[in-house]
Write a structure and sequence with these properties.
Layout: H1 3-15, H2 46-65, H3 75-113, H4 145-171
Amino acid sequence: MSAIRQRAALLARQARPQAVRNTRRYGSSHGHDHHHEHTVEEKLGTGFYLAAATFAGTWVVYNVSRPGKDGELSTFSKWLKEWADLHQTWETRNDLLAAAVEQAAADRHLLLNAPRNRTHELRFPEVFNTGSPFNVPAGHYVNIDKVVAHYQQQHLKEEERKAKKLAAAAQQ
């Protein structure tokens, strides 16, 4: 565009009547009643409540720390004395607990250092011979004749003991 044409377009725009611009007023949302004022309820802030709580707390602490009538101890001193008595109770409890822990440790050392029985009592000696009797290579199964003899001997002793017990019960 040439400079003359640009200048002509600008003058044409300025010559047009401008639209009336209405400014918005935020004073009232109800329209024509401009004389009525809005009522706003203002709440008490947290500062007021903190000040009131501080005042009440100070008053309580002052009354608790004052000595009683006729030279009695203050309430605060009485509470401290109760806590001092609890010190003795806790000391007694701690002594008992320490003694119990020491006894438990001594018992545990006895159990851990006791000799253990490495043998297992069997309900029947044939437990060693459980398995397929077929296709067993030579020497695979151990000779357990000594084990069988031991358990037979133990069985005979047990039967003897039972017979003596029954005889003693029959005599009474």
